[in-house]
Amino acid sequence: MDFELREIQRLDGHTDRVWCVAWKPDTGINGVPAVLASCSGDKTVRIWEHNSIGSFQCQAVLEEIHTRTVRSCAWSPSGKYLATASFDATTAIWENVGVDFECVSTLEGHDNEVKSVSWNASLGTLLATSGRDKSVWIWEVLPGNEFDCVSVLQGHTQDVKMVQWNPSMDTLFSCSYDNTIKVWVEDDDSDDWHCIQTLCESNNGHTSTVWSLAFDASGDKMVSCSDDLTVKIWTDVGRVQGSHNNAPWKHVCTLSGYHDRTIFSVHWSREGIIASGAADDAICLFVENNDNEVDGPSFKLLLKKEKAHEIDVNSVQWNSGDKRLLASASDDGTVKIWELVRLSE
Amino acid sequence: MIDVILDLKVVIHFVRDIRDPEHPYSLEQLSVLSEESITVDEKLGRILITFTPTIQHCSMATVIGLCLREKLKNCFPPHFKVDIKVAPGSHADEESVNKQLNDKERVAAAMENPNLRQLVDECLYSSEL
C-alpha cells in the first residue's frame, strides 16, 4: 500500500523559528473546525483555524506576555486553556473564550528557561513544567485560575527538554539533555512524587540528549527521539503483565538510519502511525510491522518526506480528528499542514 | 535568495577576523582557527569548524563557538548545516563544550541573554584590533 504525505497548506506569520505546534483537542472532528496553536522565537503564539472554505487562517496572535522565546504550548484536555512555556522563566495560562484568548495566570518558579509544559490527560487537574534549571514542577489546578505547586522534582542532572503525562494514568515522563527518560509517580501516602524508573544507556536507552517523547492511544507504548539519531519504542510491561513492577518500562526496539541529524520531535497518531521530525529537514512516518510476530513487535518506515521544510523540523503533531492531518513547525518560520493520503492502486 | 558559493575560502574569509573574547587579537592571529580547522561539504551544504582554544581550561570556548555560529548564520543561507567543535584533546571539557555548542535550544537561549549577546557582538563587529 502506498501512502503520500501531501502538503495542504503552509502557514506564514511567525517572524522567527517555530518551536512547537499543538492541535486543540476534539477539533477537526464531528464538524468542529480544526484549531492549531504554534509558538515561536518571535515571542508570540498564533492560533490557526480551519475555516469554512477549507483553509487555515490565523485567528489570534497571543503576544505581549512573554518577553523571550515561547518554547512550547499545550492545550488543556477540555480545550478551554492553553499553557505556554517560555525562556522568560514563566509559564502563561490563556483562557479561550470564543475567538479571544486572555492571559489568566502566570506561573513563576523556575530559575530560568521553561522548556516544556503538559496537562494531565484525565481531567486537566495537574500541570507539569520543566526547564533549564534541571527541575520538573507539578502544579495543581485549583478553581479561580489558581495554580499551586505541589512538588519540585530534582533528579535530572541537566536541563529537562520535555515533560509529558501518560494518557491513561497520572504518571509523568521527563526527558533530558542528560540522555535519560525518567518516570515519576505520586507517593501512596503523601502528595509528593518520586522517580520509579530511569531509562538510560544501560537499559537500551539513548546515548545523547532525549528531545521528545509521546504515547500511543492506550498509553501502553511510548516513543522517544534523540540527538543520537535514533527513535526508540518502549512498552509498559508492568501494566501489560498486570503486576506491580519496579521497572515497568522496557525497551522494544530502536529505529536508526532514518534521520542523519538530531531528531527533535516524535508523535504517535491515534491509529498507530509514528511521525518524526528532525534537523535533516525531513519527516518520517513509521508503522508497526506485523510481518514478523515471532521476534516481537517491530516497526518499519512507511515513508520519508525529504525537504519537508527548508530547514530543521522542530515539532510534529497529528490531529486526532477525521482526517489524517499532521502539523509541523520549522526553523524556517513556517508551520505546515499535511494530509496522509493513501494512493489508489 | 542570492546563491552563495560554499567553499573553504569563503568560510575562512568570514570567520578569520572574529576577535577573541579575551584578547585584542583575531581568532586567526591566536591560531584558534586556520584553514585546516574548516571542512566544507559543498554538495550537502555542510560546514564543520573545529577550533583550538588557546588553553585547555579556556572558559570562553563556548563564547567562541557562539561567535562562529552567529557569524555563519549571518553570512550563509539558513539551509547550510553548521557543526562546531573544539579540536580533539584541546579542551578539558571537550565533550561537554561540543554538546552545548550543537544544542540549538541552548544556543538560542544564550543568544537571548543580553550579556552574552553583547559579548558576541563585540567579537563580531569590533574591527579595531
Automatic annotation (TrEMBL), chain A:
What does the UniProt record say this protein does? Essential component of the cytosolic iron-sulfur (Fe/S) protein assembly machinery. Required for the maturation of extramitochondrial Fe/S proteins.
Q: Name one GO cellular component term.
A: cytosolic [4Fe-4S] assembly targeting complex
Its GO biological process annotations read: iron-sulfur cluster assembly
User: What's the source species for this entry?
Assistant: Anisodus acutangulus
Which Pfam families does this entry report, sorted A to Z? Answer: WD40
Can the keyword Repeat be found in this entry's annotation? yes
What domain of life? Eukaryota
Q: Which InterPro entries match?
A: CIAO1/Cia1, WD40/YVTN_repeat-like_dom_sf, WD40_PAC1, WD40_repeat_CS, WD40_repeat_dom_sf, WD40_rpt
Name of protein: Probable cytosolic iron-sulfur protein assembly protein CIAO1 homolog
Positions annotated as WD repeat:
11-49, 63-95, 107-141, 153-184, 203-234, 306-345
The answer to whether keyword Repeat applies is yes
Automatic annotation (TrEMBL), chain B:
What is any one GO biological process for this UniProt entry? protein maturation
Q: Where is the MIP18 family-like domain?
A: 16-85
Q: Which InterPro entries match?
A: FSCA_dom_sf (IPR034904), MIP18 (IPR039796), MIP18-like (IPR002744)
Q: Pfam families in the record, alphabetically?
A: FeS_assembly_P
The family line of this record is: Belongs to the MIP18 family.
Q: Per its UniProt record, what PANTHER family does this chain match? A: CYTOSOLIC IRON-SULFUR ASSEMBLY COMPONENT 2B-RELATED, PROTEIN AE7-LIKE 1
* Stated name of the protein: MIP18 family-like domain-containing protein
From the broadest rank down, the organism's phylogenetic lineage runs: Eukaryota, Viridiplantae, Streptophyta, Embryophyta, Tracheophyta
